[in-house]
What we know:
Shape: globular
CATH architecture of the largest domain: 2-Layer Sandwich
Mean pLDDT: 82
Largest sheet: 8 strands, antiparallel
Structural class: alpha+beta
Helix content: 10-25%
CATH class of the largest domain: Alpha Beta
CATH superfamily of the largest domain: ATP-grasp fold, B domain
Strand content: 25-35%
CATH topology of the largest domain: D-amino Acid Aminotransferase, Chain A, domain 1
Number of strands: 40
Amino acid sequence: MITSLLIANRGEIACRIIRTAHRMGIRTVAVYSDADAKALHVREADEAVHIGPSPAAESYLVGDKIIAAAKETGAEAIHPGYGFLSENADFAQAVLDAGLIWVGPKPESIRAMGLKDAAKTLMDEAGVPTTPGYLGDNQDADFLAEQAEKIGYPVLIKAVAGGGGKGMRKVDEAANFADALQSCRREAQASFGNDIVLLEKWIESPRHIEVQVFGDSHGNVVHLFERDCSLQRRHQKVIEEAPAPGMDSETREAVCAAAVRAAKAVDYEGAGTIEFIADASEGLRADRIWFMEMNTRLQVEHPVTEMITGVDLVEWQLKVASGKGLPLRQKDLAINGHAIEARLYAENPANGFLPSTGRLEVFRIDAGYAGRRFDSGFEEGATVTPHYDPMLAKLIVHDDSRDHAIESMLRMLEESFVWPLKNNMGFAYECLDCAPFRAADLDTGLIERLGDKLTDGEVSDERISVAASGLWSFGLGGQTFEQAQLLTGLKGFRLNAPVQEIVRVFADAEPRIVGAPDGETRRAGSFSISDHGTDGCVVNDRGNVVLVSMAPHGGFAGAGAAGDGAILAPMPGKVIAVNVAAGDTVSAGDKLLTLEAMKMEHTLTAPFDGVVAELDAEEGGQVTDGAVLAKIEAAGE
């Protein structure tokens, strides 16, 4: 059995692997970049090794440094987690060549499933149904446009080496194909070093169904049932659940059997996920579910499978990598209840889901009840940097039914606090609470159709009247800010819980409760006060938070634009495309430039018709949050 393990990853997944390894008595080694020197996974491991600068390309993606760290610390095995090098067959082979144990599938299995076009061909041969589309060597843009016409719009452009929603673009009409192809290729090259794409028919009522599979070195393969990951935004999963609602036993048997055939076709070992797309226009049916791809690693959403089966998948990974057989056979596995996972991101749903970076002054997730689980690589006081994915944590609940699991997750979200970073808790709440989700009327386009209803930030008249019942002021450093906006009780912070107390903080920083439900004014007890730019936060000793904002308007007036036509950088990042030059005439909505931050592209557009009066951005340049990148003068000025 493995006795020492290096985790070639960071954040939440590194902490989660360390937790199981320590329970099994395995010594752990963490690796970290400059940005992660004080990270939670570094402190939780038994030993930690610095592997380079903050950019992942100079640290977490440099296989030689990771293998050297394992050798230096005497680690027997390397667990890649997910993302980074987890599906890199060359790295897996290098680990084995170095005499170390690779906690994952064989390199040849990764290669077989690593390219989506080759994987689809292999699945066809194995009798696994695949989605209609084009996959081939001809990557000429005009030829691909012709193939898209033959398939029929809408089509989906997918990077063959893609994953995690990167390198994917839905195209609704021929006029948009060329731009979408270029953007998809650019993102794929930056994320995976491979810009080859395939085309698939876009399924109009698609549900994302995936099956957890597990194989060992003795020829055994089992499935651990399915997950539904249909609630997505821009192909990024938001809410995941297991089992899939509306899945009858006959369909489940057919889909899970196909997943096992797929795993056996590549002689699979370890944890893997077979992803399917289902046409749900007439419910889930076995003849309307097609193979999409295989992820040859542990998935972000693996906790929901663990909750309904009682299995620790990381423990299974470590046992199988040590040469042991699967702990259970198919007949021993069963579904118990229902589990839901919500991904918590540092992003601003009200402003195009732009990433949010900075210090987590308040980070309190209430997982103190049976059936609740909280996986994170952050803690209160930690700093979220622009170098990595913006996911802060995963909130997971388990209950005896789907309805009860939904209610449990809503309560968990209501009782959790994050500040001052913008986050998607309110957005996740609205997704879970919307009528279609509750009724399991799901498809991957649901969030897009609901649109602003999930992010508009409206609050009830009752809460508005409570917030307006007195003069709001917040005093820090002897200065009083009047008419501040009370944000507690609004979506995205305290969520949909009712306002319990109204807190007024005077210039002497002595907090008192004003307008409490009983109508009395009293001292507020023990409080801490934080100053964050134009915002202030008061946290009492029961964990309740009141946040006030002194910004007169807040946010951006348009997509990264100030009201006077100044185009501002909405986050720190790199300029990867400049579409205009000084003096150009532009129309409202025209693309001006594109930033890359936290592994995502963000396009800034013209707020109104006018002329590019100033341009202070160049391709490849780094920009800071709030920097003026360009200025648009209105036509006629």
